[in-house]
Structure formats: structure tokens, C-alpha cells
Amino acid sequence: MKAPEARTTGLVMALLLASACAWAADPGAPLNLRAADDPEDDRGIVMLVSWDEPEAPPPDDVQLVGYQLMAAPAGESLRLLTNVQLDEGTQSGSNEFRPWPWPGYNVAVAAVYAPEGISFDYLVDEDGNVKDSRATVVMSDTIGPVQPVGLWFDRDRTNILVLVVAICAIVLLTIAAVRGHAEDVYIRPIAGLEAVNDAVGRATEMGKPMVYVSGLSGIGDIATIASMLILGHLSRRAAAYETDIIVPCNDPMVMVAEREIVRQAYSEAGKPDVYRPENIWFVTDSQFGYVAAVDGIMVREQPAACFYMGYFYAEALILAETGNQTGAIQIAGTDADTQLPFFITACDYTLMGEELYAASAYLARQPLLVAQLRGQDIAKVIIAAILIVGVAAATVAALASGVVADLAMRFVEWFAS
Amino acid sequence: MPEAMPLEQIIGTWIAAFLTLAIFSFLYRDNPIYKFAEHVFVGVSAGYGVVITWREAVVPDLIQPLLDPGAVDLAGPNYVVLIPGALGMLMFSRFFPRYDWLSRWPIAFVMGYSSGLAIPAAIQMSLLPQLHATLLPVWPNGDTSAWMAFSNLLLFVGVLCTLAYFFFSREHKGALGVASKVGIFFLMVAFGAGFGNTVMARVSLLIGRVQFLYEDWWLALVRPWFGG
């Protein structure tokens, strides 16, 4: 009987040893993975994931240091969403899911093990992926597809909708009301715009060109669009007097649009033959490369007038300072509040903020633009009224108590974005 | 020649120092050296821009979604990108005068889409945060000191008066005239503060450039030639 007992004991020992070896090679994976849509998330881009810790303790030579949350739309390979440190627990939320049409996601969590003394942060690269060969990553089962679902109406943005609709309605109603008698609408004088015609006259008398810079923003920026409307007016005046206008561009699409605008302006002025497309060209989209080129143009061409209309960054002062040194009359207009001080310092006239937008209505006197300006003014009156009521409400909320204070605070908080 | 610095770094530092001094020479007057640096700068940046656009936009946003979807984590080709791709291709119609009107389509699309996007974005990111930040108690209470209440009142008056300055369809006379004058005062105070702040930042940029010329170029490369 001894031999079979010895064989049994040996077999048990061998099985134990084998399982110990397998266990050492493969520490436990996260268990009972659960994933669900975040009910508080109206956009449907957040998913809450939780899991249980691996049941089996890790082998002696390694320790659990953290988790990795992985997910991907069904049919795609899993990718890392976020790393979870051990002290953050066994749940995580990620807001990296795609909005509408809210695809379903496969989700998994990986447990990351490392030799003692090595923290999670040392194991991952700058993108958060585990690259260290000393780490052992054990994936859980993949669950899914789980679908984070958003609402068709984001309640947090109700105030934006109300204001957009209100302001658009005011402008549209004003356009309808003013359409027949737009020329009677008063627009206050804007010094910088009245100087535009003087600048064209000066350039004509001196026989020198004008330089027009339409900022460094793309064609979709409102300041660039406003700038192009001013360029159209300026080009019509320049065409009438056959004065050259040089337009170095920072954006190729802006260049194309400005060529069209200037060509149209020359045609409207009855001087299509004077139009010179080579005066409007793309320089470079590099900020300071562009500045170096425009500075050189200004110094070599010695323009009679320089216009800076659009959105500007750090190049504003460099351009305006160089233009100032050439002795040109300078008119600037921008809604970049950080650059306005430099234009005010170095230019003869500056259109501040919304004056740039008002310029097109002021110069063109088109009924639609004038009515739009009037509508914006009415919207400003309403905003001023909201300010007065809101400050009163904030003061009441701070001083009073009960229902009144609660109502006042709710009014103030409605404007939180 | 210092031995510790690799040859490519020495060449790079010399080129950077030469181009820096060439650009600074504009402070004296326009000259051929500045012109050379200007043309190098414009040419290199334009070429670099083309490469960046190709690598960061055309390849990952158009070519890979169509021809190599796995590289951008897609299960299969995404043919939707053909629409913006076609719009982009229309820009090349500028090279053919007979069809150059086609280039207006992508321009119109970008302008329309951007304008539409700008309206809610302006309300969400500019109007509402500034409006909400102004709605503060202007009377002292448990949470608001007298000084803080005064600051809040000043902010409120400043915002109202500045708003009055940007009122275009009424003559700035009477109360509106007074308010707009006060508004201009607030604007100029803000611009003055902004001017000083930015000038300080610009000076720090100049210091960085001078530091490069002195430490990386003069001390490390030039002075050793003179036995320093």
C-alpha cells in the first residue's frame, strides 16, 4: 500500500507545484466588471466602470500597482482610456466616449503588477501606456457592448438656447422693422472709420500704396470676416483713385477670399483693368515669419497708409511699430483685447472690439447691416437690464433668507455657463 | 573649439546666432543681411507648414481613414471623409481660371459653418461667464467684506459704462454720454494694465534671446577662440 500512497502524495505535490508556477506566471485579473452610462451626463460621453479586485493574492515578488481602463467601439481594438492608481479604488469614469450617435463600446480593465518598490507612474510612458518590461498586465474579461446614451436636449445649456433665440429674434425683428428706412437710423461717428477715406486720399496724393493686414486668424473667425468687409470698402475707394493696395496674407483661404473681394470691388468701381491680383498673396502661416515679411514690405514700399484689421496676437506691436517708423497713417481694428493697448499706442486710430464689427454697417450703410447694428444695441440694453436686476438679486440673496433669497439665487445661477 | 559639444550642435548654434543677429540688424535699418534672414524664415516656415499640414491633417484625417483605417483605430474605411476631401480639392480649381468659381464653395462652407458655430460659442464662453461673474452682492454681509462689496460695485459700474460706450445707434449725449466717457476711462485703465503686463513678458523674451547669444554662442563657441 505504500507505493500507491507515495505515488498519490507525489502527484498532489506535483499538481501543487505546477499550480504555484502557473499562479506565479499569471497574477489575477480584475473580476466582475460592470459598466453603465452615467445618468448625470446629458451628452452621453461618460461611462462609469467598476470592478472587483483580483481574488488571489499576487506572488511574493510582485504587487498590484494599478489598473488600466480600456474601451473601444465594437469591432475596433481596445485602447487605453485612463489609468487608475491603486488608492483611487476600483471604479472609474471616463468622458472620452463619442457623442451622438453614441456607439456601443466593449470595455475591459487590466490589472498592472510590478516588482515591489516600483510605482505605477514609473511603468507608463507619456501617453499612459505600460512600456516597462518589469510590469505584468493582466486583462479582465471583455464586456459589452455598453452604450453611453445622451439626451437630445442638454438641460445644462438651456440658458444658452434662450439667449441665442432671444438675441437672434431681436436682430431679425429689428431688421424687419428698420428695413424700409435704414438710412434714417443714426450711427454714431467712429473716428477710425472716418479716417479711412482720408488715408486713401493721402495715399493717392503721395502716389504710394497702402498695406492691408487682415490679422492672423482663419477665414472662419468673425474678426476676419469683419475685416474682409472693410477691405471691400477700402478697395472700392482705392480702385476709384487707382491707388495700389497690398494685401499680404497669412492664410491661403483668406487670400483666395480677399482676392475675390478686391476683384469684385474693382469691378464695382468700374476699374477691373486696374485690379492686380499679384498684390494679394500668401506669405506664410508662420506667425513671426509673416511678421518679418510684412515688416520688410513696409520698409521697402514705404506705404502711405497701413491698415491692421482682424484678430492679432503677439505680432501686433511689431507690425504697428514698424508701420509707425515708416511714417504711414495707421488705422487698426481688432477684438483681441490683449493687443488693443499696442495698437492704441502705435496707431493713429484704433477700432476697439465691437467697433470693428460695426465698421461694415457704418461704411456700407446697407439696410441689413444697419438694422443688425440697431438690433445688437437693443440686445445690449436687455443685457444691461439683466445686469442691474442680477446684481440686485445677488445682493438680496446675500442679505435675505428663505424663499426670497432662494429665488434670487436661482435667478443669478441661471446665468452660470 | 570646445570638444564637449557635438558638431551638429555647434553648426546649429552658429546658424541660430547668425539669424538672430541678422533679424536684430533691422533695428538699425533694412539691409541685405536682414533680407536674407527674412527670406530664409519665410521660405522655411512655409515649407514646414506644408509638411505639417500633410502629416497632421491630410494623412491622418483623409488618407488613413480611407486606405489604412487600422492606423487610426477604425474597423473599416470611413468614406465620410471624402466630402471634406472633395471640398478641399475644389481649392485647386484656382489654378484653372475657367473653373476658379468652384473654390468659393469650400470658402462659403467654412465661413457659414464658423459663423454659425461662433454665435452659441460666444454666448457660452464670453457673454454668460462675464455676465455671471458680474452678478455679485454690492452690500457688505457675512461673506462679503465692505471692501469686497465696493470692488463688486466698481465692477458693476465699469461693465455698465463700458457697455454704454459700445452703443452705436444713439448719440452719446446726456446720461449715455457720461456713461460712455466713464466706460472709456475703465477701458484705458484695463489697457494700461494689459500693456504693462505684456511688455514685461516681451522683455523676458528678449532676455531669453540675449541669454542664448551670450551663453550658448559667445561663452561656449566664440570666446574659446580668443583663449577665454
Structure, explained:
The complex is a heterodimer of chains A (417) and B (228). Chain A is α/β, with parallel strands linked by helices and 417 residues long. Chain A folds into 2 domains: 124 residues, Immunoglobulin-like (Sandwich), CATH 2.60.40.10; 181 residues, Rossmann fold (3-Layer(aba) Sandwich). Chain A has 12 helices and 14 strands. In chain A, the strands form 3 sheets. A 6-stranded parallel sheet of chain A has the order 11-10-9-12-13-14, with helices on both faces. In chain A, helix 3 runs antiparallel to helix 11 and helix 5 packs parallel to helix 6. About 3% of the residues of chain A have low confidence. Chain B is mainly α. Chain B has a domain of 93 residues. Chain B contains 6 helices and no strands. Chain B is extended and about 70 Å long. At the A-B interface, helix 3, helix 6, helix 7, helix 9 and helix 10 of A face helix 2, helix 4, helix 5 and helix 6 of B.
Can you tell me the CATH class of the largest domain in chain A? Answer: Alpha Beta
Q: DSSP strand (E) fraction of chain B?
A: under 5%
Strand count, sense and closure of the main sheet of chain A?
Answer: 6 strands, parallel
Beta-strand percentage range of chain A: 15-25%
Please identify the oligomeric state.
heterodimer
Q: How much is the radius of gyration of chain B in Å?
A: 28 Å
Mean pLDDT of chain A: 88
Greatest contact pair? A-B, 80 and 71 residues
Overall pLDDT score of chain B:
92
Assign an overall shape of chain A.
elongated
What is the topology?
The complex is a heterodimer of chains A (417) and B (228).
Chain A: H1 2-25, E1 31-37, E2 47-52, E3 62-73, E4 79-85, E5 91-94, E6 105-115, H2 120-123, E7 136-139, E8 143-146, H3 158-178, H4 191-206, E9 210-213, H5 222-241, E10 245-249, H6 252-268, E11 280-282, H7 287-301, E12 305-309, H8 315-325, E13 329-334, H9 340-346, E14 349-352, H10 354-364, H11 367-399, H12 403-413
Parallel strand pairs in A: 9-10, 9-12, 10-11, 12-13, 13-14
Antiparallel strand pairs in A: 1-2, 2-5, 3-4, 3-6, 6-7, 6-8
Helix pairs in contact in A: 3-11, 4-5, 5-6, 5-10, 7-8, 10-11, 11-12
Chain B: H1 7-24, H2 32-67, H3 82-90, H4 104-134, H5 146-165, H6 174-222
Helix pairs in contact in B: 1-2, 1-6, 5-6
